[in-house]
Design a protein that fits this description.
This protein is mostly helical. It has one domain (4-175): Serine Threonine Protein Phosphatase 5, Tetratricopeptide repeat (Alpha Horseshoe). The chain has ten helices and four strands; from the N terminus they run ββββαααααααααα. The strands form two sheets. A two-stranded antiparallel sheet has the order 1-4. Helix 3 (70-76) packs antiparallel against helix 4 and helix 6 packs parallel to helix 8. The longest helix is centred in the N-terminal third of the chain and has 11 residues, at 32-42. It is globular and about 40 Å long. It starts with a strand and ends with a helix. InterPro entries: Ankyrin_rpt-contain_sf. This is Ankyrin repeat protein.
């Protein structure tokens, strides 16, 4: 039997008004909200797809205390195939939904160093490069500050796609 500890769930096809603090949830098979979180965290698209088909509101439901959606969770977890599948069925506006701190899934992909996830997100919504999240950071800055251990590739990727003037300076610094 799987357990989940202290998770805040919000899921409702008509605007996410259903919320509860789960504390210790015993049987996750009977609780689609926790199952969606775990599916996103583990990159299990089959389970997520089943949940979303049963409840279309789950696509953008806030499934954590930080108002993360399945897209945020899968982007931060580095599950690029899962991100690609979600992005296929989402609108550009849904892809840009922020979490509680103001970060988009693109911020989370940049922090995790997931270039493929970032590419899928930007293909759906190119404006994500300019969204300011936590502390006013754009995804490029999130990649630099938090994703540095992931290597130059993740930092270089958003730098090439960010029209911000400071990105030109950063591109020169990264090239060294």
């Amino acid at each position: 039997m799987e357990t989940c500890s202290h998770t805040m769930i919000a899921i409702n096809p008509s605007e996410g008004s259903f919320q509860r603090d789960l504390g210790e949830a015993e049987d996750l098979n009977d609780q689609p909200e926790e199952s969606l979180y775990l599916a996103a965290l583990g990159g299990n698209w089959e389970n997520a797809e089943r949940i979303i088909k049963k409840n279309p509101g789950a696509l953008t439901a806030k499934i954590s205390m930080l108002s993360l959606t399945a897209l945020h969770v899968s982007a931060f977890s580095g599950h690029s195939k899962f991100v690609e599948k979600l992005v296929e069925i989402m609108s550009p506006e849904q892809v840009a939904l922020p979490d509680l701190t103001g970060n988009t899934a693109h911020h989370h992909a940049a922090t995790a160093g997931s270039v493929k996830a970032a590419m899928a997100l930007l293909k759906k919504n190119p404006a994500l490069t300019e969204y300011q999240g936590n502390q006013g950071f754009i995804p490029l800055l999130s990649a630099v500050v938090y994703g540095a251990e992931k290597g130059k590739e993740m930092t270089w990727f958003p730098a090439r796609r960010t029209p911000h003037p400071s990105s030109k300076l950063l591109q020169r610094i990264i090239s060294f």
